[in-house]
Task: inverse folding
């Protein structure tokens, strides 16, 4: 979401003079456009190749069916029933063939195992009627064949198992936990600004539904390529990042949109990065929101990530929660809007070493704010004076002139028209 000009006060305008007075040689590196590890919608950008033990997926058939796409699930669902009907149709045909029901020259007094089963087509129809329990009609089992009774029991048991598995898979597929995560939203950009005299990395999370996420937990991870002192290259090095509520176990009460803050201290992987170096780095910040759905009790997880191009240095989120007639209102149109604020461009390490940088930055911000207020007040006074002068000129132009008339006697007569 792009910030709107109408909600950005002029006093928060960032001045180019708000830079670190400490001369520091920036480190420039050619940033390679690498693929992000987690997409903005939470999907993992990972491809599995050369898996030799494919049989492991068949050991967990239910999970495999749930993970498949809908078109494959429906094909498997239909083929499973069709194959079971055909298999038991073959059994019923063999029963009829062994009993001699298919013999057209049989005596009329001998009763059939299954009435009106005289071909494979009729045996297939009878198999469907038995497994789906839609009614036998004219085809029914008699007490002449114990084998037919055993086949009937076996088909009913197998049919119930197939129904339970297939319907369970479809229910699990329609009620997957990631469906609830579609209404958990994150801000499009992350920001870095000063909060409580410390540099902080901040994002905003929100829930669009009124049903809450119970025991919501937010975790941050920084993923980047690192090299160990021994020369080992780790392409995906995951570093846990503590949020501001680390003492409470990162548990949040997600009733309204919240700003999740990470203090950039000496234990943070962002501690040595300045604004310039951040743009040259190839790190990625992954945000994971986990919790339990209040209505179903199913655990859900929502994910997103921020690359360096999506991290705004010197910005903060605008307020979106207001109180209107005794009710707190949330304006989601401003969910991702940010404004510029006075923020040193140096790293958090330099701020800890020289706290005067922050004091000077805040003082310059205050002077800039006062100057902008003076300019705005002077412009208002000038505009009011121009309006008053123009109104005076208009009034003078509209004033009624005096006209002199002469009477027939020659005497002057003054009249106003």
Result:
């Amino acid at each position: 979401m792009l910030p709107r000009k109408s909600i950005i006060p002029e006093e928060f305008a960032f001045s180019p003079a708000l830079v670190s007075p400490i001369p520091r040689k920036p480190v420039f590196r050619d940033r390679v456009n690498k693929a992000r590890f987690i997409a903005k919608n939470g999907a993992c950008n990972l491809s599995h190749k050369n898996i030799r033990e494919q049989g492991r997926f068949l050991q967990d058939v239910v999970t495999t069916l749930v993970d498949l796409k809908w078109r494959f699930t429906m094909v498997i669902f239909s083929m499973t029933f069709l194959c079971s009907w055909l298999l038991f149709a073959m059994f019923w045909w063999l029963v009829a063939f062994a009993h001699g029901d298919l013999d057209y020259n049989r005596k009329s007094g001998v009763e059939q195992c299954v009435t009106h089963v005289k071909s494979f087509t009729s045996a297939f129809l009878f198999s469907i009627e038995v497994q789906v329990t839609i009614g036998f009609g004219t085809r029914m089992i008699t007490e002449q064949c114990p084998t037919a009774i055993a086949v009937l029991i076996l088909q009913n048991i197998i049919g119930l198992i197939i129904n339970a598995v297939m319907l369970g898979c479809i229910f699990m597929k329609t009620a997957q936990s990631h469906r609830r995560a579609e209404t958990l939203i994150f801000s499009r950009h992350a920001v870095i600004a000063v909060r409580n005299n410390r540099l902080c990395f901040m994002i905003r999370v929100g829930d669009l539904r009124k049903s809450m996420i119970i025991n919501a937990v937010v975790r941050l991870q920084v993923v980047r390529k690192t090299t160990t002192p021994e020369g080992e290259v780790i392409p995906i090095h995951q570093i846990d990042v503590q949020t501001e509520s680390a003492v409470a176990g990162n548990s949040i009460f997600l009733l309204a949109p919240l700003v999740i803050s990470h203090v950039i201290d000496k234990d943070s992987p962002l501690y040595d990065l300045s604004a310039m170096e951040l743009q040259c780095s190839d790190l990625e910040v992954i945000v994971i929101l986990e919790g339990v759905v209040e209505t179903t009790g199913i655990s859900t997880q929502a994910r997103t990530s921020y690359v360096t191009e999506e991290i705004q240095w010197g910005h903060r989120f605008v307020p979106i929660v207001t109180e209107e007639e005794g009710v707190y209102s949330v304006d989601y149109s401003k969910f991702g809007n940010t404004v510029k604020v006075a923020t040193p461009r140096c790293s958090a390490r330099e701020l800890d070493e020289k706290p005067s940088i922050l004091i000077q930055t805040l003082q310059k911000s205050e002077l800039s704010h006062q100057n902008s207020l003076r300019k705005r007040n002077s412009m208002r006074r000038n505009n009011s004076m121009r309006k008053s002068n123009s109104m005076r000129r208009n009034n003078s132009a509209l004033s009624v002139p005096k006209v002199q008339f002469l009477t027939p006697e020659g005497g002057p007569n003054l009249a106003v028209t």
